[in-house]
Model the fold of this input.
Amino acid sequence: DTAVSQTPKYLVTQMGNDKSIKCEQNLGHDTMYWYKQDSKKFLKIMFSYNNKELIINETVPNRFSPKSPDKAHLNLHINSLELGDSAVYFCASSQAGMNTEAFFGQGTRLTVV
Amino acid sequence: GNSVTQMEGPVTLSEEAFLTINCTYTATGYPSLFWYVQYPGEGLQLLLKATKADDKGSNKGFEATYRKETTSFHLEKGSVQVSDSAVYFCALSDPNFGNEKLTFGTGTRLTIIP
Done:
């Protein structure tokens, strides 16, 4: 069973469209995240949710709206897509705390054309 | 703010060579330190971690020691294999946020040739 699963794996869309990426974890973790990895492999946190509540929002444009319907899901909706949004988006989860491991999904490669 | 600086890649080595990937950090307080590995087409996986000064993390023949005096967490392996080819990320957890805010380095792509 996949621990952290995201769909879709690839997403190609035109500028201006609205798209969503879904994420689910079956590990029983209480914290979930979205990370963005750019073309140079630089990885930066976007959002973090703990028990369905937003606890970190790292100056992400408000075109990006995360939604956590329950502890096991954290979806990412993006409005009015721009060329610069092209990247690989990773969902991750962990138990809250300093030393616990974060488990990552396989990533969603978003290409905006 | 917190930051992680990693050795620039890409790094190419022959099989059985010795590997070092440098990592230094800047943080307030006492972060935990991690190395994550990303194999082609996959998400990141935890490779090893250290939670306090002088701790040594180890896994799959890789090691890294938390050096507070030099703010470093260099990754080493004595004899690399082709299967070690991947991108390696050094990271730290914010002492104020724990795992909710991991700060990653830029990643180092490692290629091992037979």
